[in-house]
# Entry
Amino acid sequence: MQGQENIDQDLVKQLYEVLQNKNATSNEIKAITNSIDWDEIESVKKTNYNITLGGIIKNEWQSILFKNLNFEFSDKNKVLVTGIVKGRKASECEYIYTSFKHSWSLKHGKIIGFLE
# Structure
């Protein structure tokens, strides 16, 4: 079972690497998370001062950088990721820092759920 947990954790880590890749497209991100309907995800209240994962995937934010990432398994099929994300909107000059807590559900090496 430990081997599967490592595969799942690596998949979630890979997602954060793709998210902060300046050349990554929303299609590349959606390919990793293909079983999640991002339009159905309930995020924190949308404001100009909260960077949500849904907003990143929809290319609402630029120059994304994740800092202080911490990956924890809450059980065999869940990964909790906490940290800080930095980015800016195309219409804004200022960078914004947002603390976040993301909970990922995994099954057989695939991401099947997300809570923000």
Remarks:
- DSSP finds three helices and four strands in the chain.
- The beta strands are 62-75, 78-88, 96-107, 110-115.
